[in-house]
Amino acid sequence: MSVRDIIVGEESSVLRQPAAPVTRFDDELARLVDDLFDTML
């Protein structure tokens, strides 16, 4: 079961936008990484 929505179609253009550099790896970012990993399973 996906934890996060998977972006497809017209919405996928957001994936081509540059992201801000990561300056610290806090609990919120760790939770996002865990959610994305669970979504890929």
TrEMBL record:
SUPFAM superfamilies per record: Peptide deformylase
InterPro entries listed in its UniProt record: Peptide_deformylase_sf (IPR036821)
The organism's place on the tree of life at top rank: Bacteria
Stated name of the protein: Peptide deformylase
Organism, scientific name: Alicyclobacillus cellulosilyticus
